[in-house]
Specification:
Helices cover 33% and strands 25% of the residues. By secondary structure, it is of the alpha/beta class.
Amino acid sequence: MNKKTVESSELVDRIESPVIEIGKFNVWFNGIHILRDFNMRFRENQITCIIGPSGSGKSTLIRSINRINDDVEGFAYQGDIILNNGHINGQNIYHNGTDVNLLRTQIGMVFQKPCVFPKSIYENVLFGIKYLKNLSKQEKQQIVEENLKAVSLWEEVSNRLYDRAVTLSIGQQQRLCIARSLAVKPSIILLDEPTSSLDHISSYAIENLMLQLKKQYTIIFVTHNIFQAKRIADYLVFMCEGQVIEEGTKEKLFSNPDKQQTGDYLSNEYCEC
């Protein structure tokens, strides 16, 4: 159980042309086994919703995809996560030579609670990209406007770009966090229960935003909200105890799941895994 990768060719062949392939991936924290021989493929330009009870490993999974778990004490892993696009095309992201900062420009992350920096709205949008490029004032303005428009926030804040981001509502802050992720031009967006702290109106705004963004991005969306998954998912993954219990289109899983546990969870959020 060393903190090293184990090469694996036994990737489950369920989705053609995957943008991410996860093969026999295991995660431990201080010796506690969280993900167990996890296999999954994620398709480009789809919303994949990951559902399951608390403690099933959903957040651990997506935090592994852009290596946020590296910084957690006691983290150990085994297995492969292969990224099939961008600068790290065809490589295991846990390879020793992987540039983690470069990886995170390809894979954006939005957390459960909005994480805005103690800076202006304008500076928040540019926070990630300003370290990557030397930008003119005009380029910066264009990037800010383009990405705030992408998250339907421009009209609400265009006359107050230099106000502190914390003055925004929680829902606006979450959309600002998404804009900040988009500014570095990722191909994949990971969202870890991004609407759990939002009211219904803000939650629907984020959902509608995801439906628009999937035209350009691959979206992996963790949610506890079964109805939300039914509204926005193209593909649904039901996890329990660190493993995939069942996966498929939302139509298949909601109407005719193969596993009893899946039906139980989707109907009453209860399962015995």
